[in-house]
Design a protein that fits this description.
Elements (H helix, E strand, L loop, with lengths): L2 H21 L6 H8 L4 E6 L7 H4 L8 E5 L5 H14 L2 E9 L9 H7 L4 H5 L11 H14 L8 E7 L6 E4 L2
Parallel strand pairs: 1-2, 1-3, 3-4
Antiparallel strand pairs: 4-5
């Protein structure tokens, strides 16, 4: 595809970015964040890739230094681990928040449907095993993920690790008790 054809495919994104760039305020670089905000001040929020589940929106934290949304299918902690340890190394974490959401697409995945979509790619069809299909008990799934995160030796003792469920229907987030 020629450059002009590629640009036509993403022109809406380029236009939106032009509007954004007019108001953009350069965030601090990593050494500045470490110096002025201190290590251990970052919040990492693990959420699903579902376009309805955007932590910067439902926590009202757009462009907040130290707030990082990590989006992986099903909000699976193991899939977010490399991002978490890099954040811990660079700026230090204060909080890790795992948020699953209602009406998650993972509950609609079947092995048969997945294999039908990717029938020519066996290595992909095997990956379905890492996406736990929820029966709708999101709080229980959150508890399991949070327990796994807490069992890891990578975090400072003062890192708070919690789980929540975001309601797609109401926009509200509820803390899941341990």
């Amino acid at each position: 595809m020629a450059t002009s054809e590629l640009q036509a495919q993403v022109q809406d994104l380029l236009d939106a970015n032009s509007q954004y760039a007019v108001q953009h305020v350069e965030p601090p670089n990593i050494p500045t964040m470490q110096h002025f905000h201190g290590r251990g001040t970052a919040t990492a929020v693990i959420t699903c890739v579902d376009p309805r589940s955007v932590p910067e929106s439902f926590f009202n934290c757009v462009q907040q230094p130290g707030f990082t949304g990590i989006r992986v299918a099903g909000a699976i902690a193991k899939m977010a681990l490399s991002s978490l340890v890099i954040l811990q190394h660079l700026i230090g974490l204060k909080r890790i928040v795992l948020v699953k959401h209602t009406d998650c697409g993972a509950k609609y995945i079947t092995r048969e449907g997945f294999q039908e979509t990717f029938h020519a790619h066996e290595e992909i069809t095997k990956s379905i095993d890492i996406i736990p299909v929820s029966d709708g008990d999101f709080a229980s799934a959150v508890r399991k993920e949070v327990a796994w995160l807490k069992s890891l030796p990578y975090w400072s003792e003062d890192v708070v690790i919690v789980g929540m469920v975001y309601s797609i229907e109401t926009g509200k987030v509820e803390l899941v008790d341990e």
